[in-house]
Write a structure and sequence with these properties.
With 326 residues, the protein is mainly alpha-helical. The protein has 13 helices and 5 strands. It starts with a strand and ends with a helix. Bound molecules: tryptophanyl-5'AMP.
């Protein structure tokens, strides 16, 4: 059975972009593939984190996964840092990755500009991500478009290792949904909706107060020509709302354009808000019953044990091929 894997960082809030770009995709793939979904807590410490907050965010993210419809019986759910073989695999891959490749990653270039004294973890972050992916022979990686370059690097590293040491890794492929590859900020629809945005009015969080969610959508930036048409270049605000709408309803762009032909922006925004609020209210209800329950502990133990064994096997094979140890 083919394997599908993705992870999210437990950095504060989980946005509608995270949900549509990654979690929602997994809800579909869990029915077709051997699915792995984890909390990328080791990735989150590439920038400073407050320990108590981080611990809370990790637990909360697991509960969000399950509340979003990730079925623990169909997925291996785990916390990255509970598996010591992931950083071990990552180190062996790091020694097969060039500094130039890492320094050219778009996300590194952006983030290193924002932090004056950044750690080397920010640079080597994509190698750890490659370890996450190829360490368990992942075939498919559902991500938003901002992570595509990192999955491609994982492919390059896998290919290089296979050439040098013989077949060791499966070549992973990014899975990027046609809709929702990049949900944009509601106030500034030319940039990605991101948890780190300064102006929170443009960012919707999965666990946010639903009245506020509605307000944010109703006051989303649009244009003045009053046409509900998908045209990201000239109408980024409306196109972003169409994208959100089709991602959650499964309708096509053409169907939406037809349905709202002649309608004003207020009517359309209200419909988008209804769809988003409806989706999030179900998640929030389930979240309340899941967070803090013992049931999560069992799921995480199982996930930790299965993945530790898989990564250990891969690590031993790599060690042997490289000539390490006795
Ligand atoms: P992270 O935590 O930044 O984001 C988690 C997922 O959400 C997607 N995403 C979006 N999709 C659509 N629109 C947006 N506005 C938006 N914002 C975020 C991201 O593309 C991502 O899929 N490095 C990863 C975590 C990671 C990982 C992995 C992912 C670590 N190891 C192995 C896949 C496989 C990250 O920081 O994602």
């Amino acid at each position: 059975m083919k394997r599908v894997l993705t992870g999210l960082q437990p950095t504060g809030v989980i946005t509608l972009g995270n949900y549509i770009g990654a979690i929602r995709q997994m809800k579909v793939y869990q029915n077709e593939y051997d699915s792995f979904l984890f909390v990328a807590d080791l990735h989150s410490i590439t920038i400073p984190q407050e320990p108590d907050e981080l611990r809370e965010n990790i637990k909360s993210l697991i509960a969000i996964y399950i509340a979003c419809g990730i079925d623990p019986d169909k997925n291996t759910i785990y916390i990255q840092s509970e598996n010591p073989y992931i950083p071990a695999v990552s180190w062996l891959l790091e020694c097969n990755t060039y500094y130039g490749e890492l320094s050219r990653m778009t996300q590194f270039k952006d983030k290193s500009l924002k932090h004056t004294n950044f750690t080397s973890g920010l640079l080597t972050y994509p190698v750890l991500m490659a370890a996450d992916i190829i360490g368990v022979d992942t075939d498919y990686v559902p991500v938003g478009i901002d992570q595509k370059q990192h999955v491609e690097l994982a492919r390059d590293i896998a290919e290089r290792f296979n050439k040098k040491y013989g077949d060791t890794f499966v070549m992973p492929e990014p899975l990027i949904a046609k809709e929702g590859t990049k949900i944009m900020d509601l106030q500034n629809p030319t940039v990605k909706m991101s948890k780190s945005a300064e102006n929170k009015k443009g960012v919707i969080c999965v666990l946010e107060d639903l009245n506020l969610v509605r307000k944010k959508i109703m006051s989303a930036t649009t244009d003045s020509d009053m046409l509900i048409k998908f045209d990201p270049e000239n109408k980024p605000g409306i196109s972003n709302l169409i994208n959100i709408y089709i991602s959650l309803t499964g309708e096509t762009v053409e169907e939406v354009e037809k349905k709202f032909d002649g309608a004003n922006y207020g009517t359309f925004k209200k419909e988008v808000a209804d769809v988003v609020v409806n989706e999030l209210s179900g998640i929030q209800e389930r979240y309340k019953t899941i967070v803090g329950s013992d049931y999560i502990e069992d799921i995480l133990n199982k996930g930790r044990d299965r993945t530790t064994e898989l990564f250990k096997q891969k690590y031993e094979v790599m060690k042997q091929k490289i000539g390490l140890g006795r």
